[in-house]
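tool_log.txt
---
The assistant was asked to compare two proteins side by side. It first ran the structure predictor on the initial sequence, then on the second. Raw inputs and outputs are pasted verbatim so the downstream comparison step can read them without reformatting.
(1)
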Amino acid sequence: MSSDALDTFLSPCPPARRVPAFAPLRVGAGRYRLRPVLRRRRRTASGALALTAAVLAVAGGGQAAQASRGASPPAAGPPPAAVRMVAAPVRIADAATVRLLRPGDRVDVVAAERAGPPRLVAAGARVARVPAPAEEAGAAGEGGALVVLAVPRETARELVGAAATARLAVALC
C-alpha cells in the first residue's frame, strides 16, 4: 500500500467532493418583507371595523338615534319578576329511585293518582339535597324516600298539593 492510500485510509476527513451550484443567499432581506404584510392586516382589520360600524348604524342605531329622529322611545315595561327559588322537600314513593339521585341532577316530578292519568307536576327541578335514610326523622311508617328540590315558589305549592293526594315519582332529565 502506498503512503497516499494509507493517509487517505487513516484520515478522519472524507474525500473532497464537488459543491453543486446554488443561488446566492440574501442575508437580512426577510425583515423588509414583513412590513407590507403587517400593513395589509391593519388595513383589513380597520376595514372590518368600519363595515361593522356602518351595519350597526343602518340596522337601528338604538334608542338615542330614534329619539333624535322624532320617534318616541319604546315603552319601558316592568322589569321581569325575579324567580324566587325555594327548597321543597318531597317524598318520592320509590326509595330505590331516590338513591340514584345526586345534588345538581335535574328531574321531572310526576304525580300518579288512582283516578286519572299521571300528570307532570314539576319539570326540570334541580335536586338540592338527598338526605340519608337515617336523617329522616319519623319517616319509618310512611314509605318512600325524601329528596329536597330547588324549585320556584309556585311549583313548590303544586308539589305540596300533589303529594297530599297522589304518589310522586321522579324521572331523570
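(2)
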Amino acid sequence: MDRTVVVILRFLQGVAALTNLVLSSLVINWYLLRSPMPSPTSLNFLTFAPAFSILSIIYLELAPKRFPQGCHPFMLLAIEATNTIFYFTGFIALAIFLAKLVYCTGSVCAVARATSILAAAEFTSWIASTILLAKKISREGLKGDREPQSGSDTPMSEV
C-alpha cells in the first residue's frame, strides 16, 4: 500500500509542480512586461522550487531502480526534506509579500495568490512523502548500505 500512496503523491507533486511553474511564470512575465518594479524574489523562488521538484521526482523514482548501490536512503530523505523546506519557505514568503501589498486586485494578483496556495498544497504533499520515506527507513533499516568488510568484526589475530 505504501508504494501506491507514493506513486499517487509523486503524480500529484509532478502535476502541481508543472502548474506552479506555469502560474509563477505568468506573474513574472507580467512584472517583466507591465511593471516598472522587478518581480518579487519570493515569486522567483517559487519558479525555482518546481523546477527543482521535477528533477527531484525524476531522481527519486529512477535512482533506486537503476542505481541501487549508489543510492543511499538518507540521500533520498535529504532530497525529500529539501523540497519540503523549499515549498514551506516559498509559500510563506509569497503570502507575506501579497499581504503587505497595498493594492492587489485583478487577474495577476489572483494568479499570485493561487501560486501561493498551490505551493502550500505542494508542501503538504512533500511532507507526506518525506514522512513515508522516514517511516520506511526506520522500519526497514538502511538497506543498500555497505556490508562490513570481511574480517572487520573479528578481533585482531596475534602477530
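---
observation on (2): Residues 2-138 form one domain. The two ends are 54 Å apart (CA to CA).
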